[in-house]
Specification:
The chain has 157 residues and is mainly alpha-helical. The protein has helices at residues 5-25, 27-36, 48-68, 74-99, 103-127, 129-133, 136-155. It is built from seven helices and no strands.
Length: 157
């Protein structure tokens, strides 16, 4: 597979930009969350979240770029549509959680997002196994986010 740095830059940059915009839009909500919301056990320190998310956005971008660089096919098109769909769902989750503080709705949204990530990963796996394996940390982190989201919802009713 030909390595095309512009394709990698596009997908990584797009993924990071989505995360950065969501982070910027929810910056006041995250401050409120840190100071006022009861959190479940095993909540990572606040400083870990931007570091982990930056790495996850880079990994999902690399995976999508690898898929994009494959020969055109129906499978590639489906995989890329799933990538963009999960990225949209990813963008809106922090708005529901931090900005609107609708923890129950955010949990349901996150469950759909997790399903989309798994579906995308399985689709990637059919075309390029390394692209799929790059999504494993994302799947695990969003699973943890689901536990945390559910815990916040139950503890802050």
């Amino acid at each position: 597979m030909k390595k095309n740095w512009k394709t990698y830059a596009y997908y990584i940059g797009l993924s990071e930009a989505v995360g950065a915009l969501a982070g910027w839009l929810t910056r006041d909500g995250t401050k409120y969350f840190a100071q006022n919301v009861v959190k479940p056990p095993f909540t990572p320190p606040a400083a870990a979240f931007p570091i982990v998310w930056a790495a996850l956005y880079a990994l999902m971008g690399v995976g999508a770029a690898r898929i994009s660089l494959l020969s055109p096919s129906q499978g590639r098109n489906v995989s890329l549509r799933l990538f963009f769909t999960q990225l949209v769902f990813n963008f809106f989750w922090p708005l529901l959680f931090f900005l609107l503080r609708t923890y129950g709705a955010a949990f349901l949204w996150l469950a759909v997002l997790w399903g989309l990530i798994v579906w995308m990963t399985l689709s990637f796996h059919e075309l390029d196994r390394p692209a799929a394996w790059l999504q494993a940390p994302y799947i695990l982190w969003v699973f943890l986010a689901g536990y945390l989201n559910f815990g916040v919802w139950m503890l802050n009713r």
